[in-house]
Amino acid sequence: MCGRFVLAMPADAIKELFNLAVFDERLLPPRYNIAPTQPIVVIRQGFDGVEAVPVRWGFLPSWVKDTTRFPLLINARAEDIREKPAFRNAIRRRRCLVPASGFYEWQARGKGPKQPYWIAPKAGGPVAFAGIWETWIGADGSEIDTAAIITVAAEAPLDEVHHRRPAMIAPENFALWISGEDMTDAALSILTDLGAETLQATPVSRRVNRVADDDAGLIEPVSEEEEMPPAKPVQQRLL
């Protein structure tokens, strides 16, 4: 899955990558610990061309009546996205791109605490996660745009950290992915064009577990020994 990610790139890099004619730089403060329910930037096809807009990370289908009783959908599995009632309409015509510098994943370590890893492109630069979006309208007429990140099975060697990863879209396929046309088969076929071999995983501090921590130090590498909990002292028996 993808439960935290980073977007800390110059606005010019985002504008150039997604060929944005207009981009509000206020949408792009450096963020090193983006978490569910927070606002994220997505790239989608608008009425006047490609646009960058803020949405809530946590997908709400338009048919949901009581949001307090609906689960938080931050990810959508590519394998069954077209069959899931929550996602099947959005995958047809409301696909989007989620700009990111990289993401975090946690590796299970037996009974001990999980080890977080910072996973980012080996070549550097931003990437585009595949996403879907929806506009939810409340009973009072209020509207909120929401989104989910699509995930695929992680390949080796990334699967040693976690069995899922975000689907990434190659730049040459941006137009296909965000087109408002119902080209579901073609769109789903490009979700694994960029594989785990383009990524590198680095162990980082468990500070990333705290959403309130949001600084560049979170992606600094640490030795795994540094992150191991201290051993409990052995109690000596008196003879």
Automatic annotation (TrEMBL):
<comment type="similarity">
    <text>Belongs to the SOS response-associated peptidase family.</text>
</comment>
<dbReference type="Pfam" id="PF02586">
    <property type="entry name" value="SRAP"/>
</dbReference>
<dbReference type="InterPro" id="IPR036590">
    <property type="entry name" value="SRAP-like"/>
</dbReference>
<keyword id="KW-0456">Lyase</keyword>
<dbReference type="GO" id="GO:0106300">
    <property type="term" value="P:protein-DNA covalent cross-linking repair"/>
</dbReference>
<dbReference type="GO" id="GO:0003697">
    <property type="term" value="F:single-stranded DNA binding"/>
</dbReference>
<dbReference type="GO" id="GO:0006508">
    <property type="term" value="P:proteolysis"/>
</dbReference>
<dbReference type="InterPro" id="IPR003738">
    <property type="entry name" value="SRAP"/>
</dbReference>
<dbReference type="GO" id="GO:0008233">
    <property type="term" value="F:peptidase activity"/>
</dbReference>
<keyword id="KW-0378">Hydrolase</keyword>
<keyword id="KW-0190">Covalent protein-DNA linkage</keyword>
<keyword id="KW-0227">DNA damage</keyword>
<keyword id="KW-0645">Protease</keyword>
<protein>
    <recommendedName>
        <fullName>Abasic site processing protein</fullName>
        <ecNumber>3.4.-.-</ecNumber>
    </recommendedName>
</protein>
<keyword id="KW-0238">DNA-binding</keyword>
<dbReference type="GO" id="GO:0016829">
    <property type="term" value="F:lyase activity"/>
</dbReference>
